[in-house]
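Section 5.1 Outputs to date
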Amino acid sequence: MKDSDCVEFLQWALPQLGMRWPGFRKVRRQVCRRVDRRLRELGLETTRAYRDYLSEHPAEWNALDTLCRIPISRFYRDRGVFDCLRERVLPELAKDAVARGESALGIWSAGCASGEEPFTLDIIWQLDLTAKFPQLDCRIIATDIDEHMLERANRGCYSSSSLKDLPEVWREAAFTRQEEEYCIKSEFRTGIEFCRQDIRHQMPDGPFHLILCRHLVFTYFDDATQQQLLQQLLGKLVPGGFLVTGKQETSELAPDRLKQCQPPMGIYRLLTPSLA
């Protein structure tokens, strides 16, 4: 299948899935390989034939939706973002929670893929912040639509390339080496709950002090879906809570309700009268 044929097909199909072509431009080859493989499975020769097949078999849209999932993750991905979370956001949220007499900090990692993001957060909390806030637990809900990715997350074992951005001292403290893999130690698993959810149709109950929704809603979904889900995400935050998106994602999210932290890294705080 030629790249131009695949691009034309995706530009036609993605809007019907509530997705946007610009978000897929850089990862299209990965999606195109999957589409090409699906055509061979169905015995179809062209994307035009696949269009006809989709029209005749509506359930196939669910299969195509699955082909368009792009799980890209590693520990401490976007170092500046996690440095800011460790040095500023999490301590600030913890201080506020303690002042309110709360016993736990609630975090949601949306689109967690194979678990690197929520495990990174738990490592930060346990190795850097627990001693400063001993009266506060950290509870993390991690969700993803892909059952295979969640199985990998629950297994908790990774290649060295997945850990390349994680500080070496944390790698030694949080992982054990098992042949060619690094497996997360049991004490860094207890505060995380992995759940299978499609964010377009289901979200965990909340409320949360911190929500990470990076490289998902604001990259791949169309504008209408983004706005709908944004309002739902904000409804899951406690007053003064933080929302983290991808660094390169839109910088003008609900300016009447969110204040972007500086320097701009996709970290926003939900405005309250005292923060406005």
